[in-house]
Amino acid sequence: MTLNPASQRVESGSRQAHDDAETCTKILEVMEKLSQVKDVHALLAEVLLQARRLTRADAGSIYLIENNVLNFSYIHNDTLFGASGVNRYLYANHTLAIDNHSLSGYVALTGKPLLLDDAYHLPPGMPFDFNDSFDRRSGYRTQSILAVPLVTSRNKTVGVMQIINPLNDDRQPSAFTPGDLLLLKHFADNAAAAIERAMMTREIIMRMIQMCELRDPKETGLHANRVGAFAAEVYHQWSFKQGIADDEIKRNKDSLRIAAMLHDLGKVAISDLILRKPDKLNAEEFRIMQYHTIHGARLFRNQESDLDMLSAEIALNHHEKWDGTGYPGKIDDIYQDQPRLGQGKQGEEIPIAARIVALADIYDALMSRRVYKGAWSEATTLNYIQNQSGKLFDPAVVDAFLAIYDVITAIRDKYQEEAVSPGREASP
Question: Where in the sequence numbering do the catalytic residues fall?
């Protein structure tokens, strides 16, 4: 049967309406999923993943506005980074001015999206240039770019998302379409609100850590960010090697980064005379210091979420050691008055999250200068960690740590200390 032109228009319009409805439904499903993500890093990863899926993009990045500049915050690149998703570029220390001198700066400044068919052949009269430094370093070839501002419902721009190189059915780079631009703009408008909420959550966490810093100057935001990032990426590598499903990895990694940052909150209950003592603690002082693990776990007694349970688990167990020589050990009830420290937990009796944070925390302590000690060299620190595999540390965790050591050094560079911080770290 042959359709007349009017019927063809009706059918075409029906198909378009059906496609639009499917797209809206898909975006609503994605937004529901995003609303459950707690950590801003995990949220950015999911936002970028879903944006790329909607537009078939091979790569992308997100910049967030912090201190009136664009701060490089997340990157994906399937061609370069492979299946594990762990890469050092996630922690690149890079900022852009909000001005006309870069693609993202222009989008942030003007609030206007950009669609470019070929980044290396910009239309004449563009007020910005394409920065090809990443391509030159990595060997990647950026072609088509879609960049959109991340604007909340209150008309606040919180960042810029750009996605790169849509792939055709043969997985070859093609060009974005005006339809892709409309789709991404709609998605970005919804995602911006979730990003703003996650940034507010991160700010609350950092204030909690700053409160701890008032008591123990070693517990800086930089230290917390390093330990949180070390733990999250080591877990990602460990779980990938264990064959854990991607959705479970994402869910656990989301909570782990936050919980790891809060591992030493219990030190607020320890005397300043001990926390700020510049010399080695005596036996009684060290025994009192050991109770910071119990005090920290108690802070999460009213457990309303998986994050509360994980935070308590890490706070309590991050000084346990693989060979059973750690603390506070096996305790029947941590909520009783002055519970007795027990025999150290051993091996897999220690939760995996705590085994990972133990390595992350000790590595950072050894590599950092304090008023009571100098920083260990990188070679000495790595030699110590390798020698303690199977003793202080879970061998599988050490293997995961060493497998992504380029990522570990990128994290250290991103969150490096600018000055010596006084304070006290319990002996490894």
Answer: 267
